[in-house]
Specification:
Elements (H helix, E strand, L loop, with lengths): L1 H8 L7 H26 L4 H22 L4 H23 L10 H12 L3 H24 L10 H86 L3 H6 L3 E7 L7 E8 L2 E9 L3 H21 L5 H19 L9 E9 L4 E7 L3 E5 L2 E5 L18 E4 L5 E5 L1 H4 L2 E2 L4 E2 L1 H11 L5 H16 L8 E7 L2
Antiparallel strand pairs: 1-12, 2-3, 3-4, 4-5, 5-8, 6-7, 6-9, 9-12, 10-11
Helix pairs in contact: 2-3, 2-7, 3-4, 4-5, 4-6, 5-6, 5-7, 7-9, 9-10
C-alpha cells in the first residue's frame, strides 16, 4: 500500500510535502468528482450540475498528470484554485440551490487546500480573501436575482444533497489533515534518520580529522627534527670546508661562487698552502643533499690526509691516490653500489717560485683566461672512483703569466636548464660570460656569473649543485 501511495503521490526525495499533498488532493478531487456526478444525476439535479462536475473531474485528472508527471506544481495548484473559484464555484452555486444547497460546504475544502499547499502567507491571505469575496458576491447575486438560482426537484433531493455535501466536506477535511499529519511525520522521520546518519558521519569525520591532526603534528615534529639535523649537518660541513681566507691570502684576486641545490651540497672546494705550493681543488660528488654532503666531507678528509700528511704535491698523483682511498673507503662501508661514480675533481697546484702550475682533472676541465682569450685544458674522462677502465691520471703543466685568470667549475653550472627554450647553460655560454667580463675585477665577475646563472634558470628547478672558483696568481 505504501509503495502504491508513494508511486501515486511521489516520494519525499522527488517532491516537498506541499507538492505531495497537492497530488493527493487532485486524486481525491477527481475520485469524489466521479461520485458527485453520479449523486447529482441520481438526485435529479439539473444536467448543467452533472456536466460541470464531470468537467471538473476531467480537469483535475489532467492537472494531476501535469503535477505528478510533468512536475508543474505552481501551474497545477493555481490553475485548480482559480478555475474552482472563478468558474466551478459560481456555476455549482447557481445550479445547486445557492445558499440553501450543499455546495457552500465545498468552500471549506478550498480553504483547507489553500492552507495545506501554499507556503507563502501573503498568497494564502490573498486567496482566502478572494474566496470570501466570491462567496459574498454569490450571496449578493442570489439576493438580487433569486429567480436565477436553480432549486432542488424535491425536499428529499435537497436534504440528500446537503447530507452528501456535508459528508464530502467532512471526509475531505479529515483526509487532508490526516494525510498532512502522516506525510509530515514521515518527512520528520526521514529528516531524523538523515540527521542521525549525518551525525554518525560527522563523528567519523571528527575522528578522521583528529587522526589526521595527530599525524600532522607527528609529521611536523619529525620534519622539525629533520630540519634540525640538516642544519646541524650543514654546520659540520661548513666547519670541514677550508676558510675562504686561504684563497684570498694566496692569490692576487679571487672569488668563490658556491650554490648548493639544497642546504647541504655534494660539491666541495679545498684550498691549502704547503711550502711553496698553493693547491686549489674543486669536486662534485655523486648526489646532492645529505648523501652528497657526507660524500663531500669524506672527500675533504681524504684529500687532507693525502696532501698534508703524506705530503703529495703532484696533481695527477693526488688524483690517483684519491681514487685508491675512495674505492677502499666505500668498499669498507659497503656502499659502492650507491655511489659508484665517486667524484668528478679538478686539482691545480701553483709553485710560487717557478710560476708553474700543474693541473689534473677527473671529468672537470680548467679554463685559463689570457689577454681576453680562453685556453681550455681537458680532463681525463673518468671519475675518482670505480670505472670500467681506470688509467693513471695525467698532468697538464702551465706557465702562468701576469694577470692570467684560472677558473675551475663543476657541471652544475653548465648543465642547468633554462632560457626561453629550456636548454642547458652549456660550456659555450660560460666562456662567453667570462670573456665579456675578462677585464673586470673577479668579484664583479662573480656577481655577473651569479646574475646570468639565475636569470637563465628562471623558474626552472635547480639541476644540481653548482660551484665555480676563479683566481689570479700573479
Amino acid at each position: 500500500m505504501n509503495k502504491l501511495i508513494t508511486k501515486l503521490l511521489g516520494s519525499s526525495s522527488e517532491f516537498p510535502l506541499n507538492h505531495r499533498i497537492s497530488n493527493a488532493a487532485l486524486i481525491l478531487g477527481a475520485l469524489l468528482g466521479i461520485q458527485a456526478s453520479l449523486s447529482n444525476y441520481l438526485l435529479n439535479l439539473p444536467l448543467i450540475t452533472v456536466y460541470t462536475t464531470l468537467g471538473m473531474t476531467v480537469l483535475l485528472s489532467f492537472l494531476y498528470y501535469f503535477s505528478r508527471i510533468k512536475q508543474k506544481f505552481k501551474f497545477t495548484v493555481y490553475t485548480a484554485i482559480l478555475i474552482n473559484m472563478l468558474i466551478y464555484t459560481p456555476i455549482m452555486w447557481i445550479s445547486n440551490g445557492g445558499s440553501s444547497g450543499g455546495f457552500q460546504y465545498y468552500l471549506f475544502v478550498y480553504a483547507t487546500f489553500i492552507i495545506a499547499v501554499i507556503n507563502n502567507k501573503k498568497v494564502i491571505i490573498a486567496l482566502i480573501s478572494l474566496t470570501v469575496i466570491i462567496f459574498l458576491s454569490l450571496l449578493f447575486y442570489e439576493y438580487s436575482y433569486p429567480e436565477k438560482i436553480l432549486g432542488y426537484p424535491s425536499r428529499e433531493d435537497k436534504y440528500g444533497d446537503l447530507v452528501v455535501g456535508f459528508l464530502f466536506v467532512l471526509f475531505g477535511v479529515i483526509y487532508m489533515f490526516y494525510f498532512y499529519t502522516i506525510q509530515y511525520n514521515k518527512t520528520n522521520l526521514e529528516l531524523s534518520l538523515k540527521n542521525s546518519e549525518l551525525e554518525k558521519q560527522n563523528i567519523k569525520l571528527y575522528k578522521h580529522q583528529s587522526k589526521i591532526e595527530s599525524q600532522r603534528k607527528i609529521l611536523e615534529t619529525q620534519n622539525l627534527h629533520i630540519k634540525d639535523s640538516i642544519s646541524y649537518a650543514q654546520k659540520i660541513q661548513k666547519a670541514v670546508f677550508p676558510s675562504i681566507e686561504i684563497l684570498k691570502q694566496n692569490t692576487k684576486d679571487s672569488f668563490l661562487l658556491y650554490l648548493p641545490k639544497e642546504k647541504i651540497g655534494g660539491d666541495f672546494y679545498y684550498y691549502t698552502k704547503i711550502k711553496d705550493s698553493f693547491i686549489a681543488v674543486i669536486a662534485d660528488s655523486t648526489g646532492h643533499g645529505v648523501p652528497g654532503g657526507f660524500m663531500s666531507m669524506l672527500g675533504i678528509t681524504i684529500l687532507e690526509e693525502i696532501i698534508k700528511r703524506k705530503n703529495i704535491l703532484d696533481a695527477a698523483e693526488i688524483l690517483n691516490k684519491f681514487r685508491e682511498e675512495i674505492i677502499e673507503s666505500l668498499d669498507q662501508k659497503n656502499i659502492r653500489s650507491i655511489t659508484n661514480d665517486g667524484f668528478d675533481t679538478a686539482i691545480c697546484i701553483f709553485n710560487t717560485k717557478t710560476k708553474q702550475m700543474n693541473y689534473a682533472g677527473a671529468n672537470l676541465p680548467l679554463i685559463l683566461m689570457r689577454n681576453k682569450e680562453i685556453i681550455s685544458y681537458s680532463p681525463d674522462n673518468m671519475p675518482v672512483g670505480t670505472y670500467i677502465t681506470m688509467k693513471p691520471f695525467k698532468n697538464n703543466f702551465i706557465e702562468i703569466q701576469k694577470d692570467d685568470s684560472v677558473y675551475l667549475f663543476t657541471d652544475g653550472i653548465t648543465d642547468q636548464f633554462g632560457g626561453s627554450k629550456n636548454q642547458k647553460f652549456s660550456f659555450h655560454r660560460l666562456k662567453k660570460v667570462l670573456t665579456e667580463n675578462a677585464e673586470e675585477p673577479l668579484f664583479i665577475q662573480k656577481e655577473q656569473l651569479k646574475k646570468t646563472f639565475r636569470n637563465w634558470k628562471g623558474n626552472q628547478k635547480r639541476t644540481d649543485d653548482a660551484l665555480i672558483t676563479g683566481f689570479k696568481l700573479i
